[in-house]
Write a structure and sequence with these properties.
- With 176 residues, the chain is of the alpha/beta class.
- Helices cover 46% and strands 13% of the residues.
- The protein contains six helices and six strands.
- The strands form two sheets. A four-stranded parallel beta sheet has the order 1-2-3-6.
- A hairpin with a 4-residue loop joins strand 4 and strand 5.
- Helix 1 crosses helix 2.
- The chain is globular and about 45 Å long.
- The protein starts with 18 loop residues before the first helix and ends with a helix.
Amino acid sequence: AHGRSFHNLHDLLPLPYARATLDHLRGRVQQVQERLKRPLVIENVSSYLQFAADEMGEAEFIATLVRETGCQLLLDINNVYVSHRNHGFDARAFIDAMPLDAVVQIHLAGHEDRGDIVIDTHDHAIRTEVWDLYAYALQRLGARPTMIERDDAIPPLPELLLELDQARAVARGVLA
């Protein structure tokens, strides 16, 4: 790749939320699950744009894919928050619309808030709004394995451990 520059987009790239996309993905998810002989786990993405071809919202799209394939869900709370801010939907309603029995893991992360757009960078501490949404998700889901993501600007270990302690405190407060 001499002479080329590459950029880290920090994100999974979105697809149009349309029936044709669901039909395309359904066969591929089923093929992978048959090969692995176990459910595939999909993740909700952070998004910054919406497609003219969208026929449904992301929550309906994910719920339909899970229902039609039996796959499972990694619920990324920071991605819900980022997309909520970028598109103006109700983040709690998004969580409510998820197939909660299919959620096998939760992810938490920080992001960059530029005011008019929020970027899922995994290089900042988890913000209060994401902690609040995590507590709401746990109220709806019950206990779920949770992972904190940091991909860049990784702070010293004591700072990371404080976030871990906060995640545990939120879970104890909700699940006690």
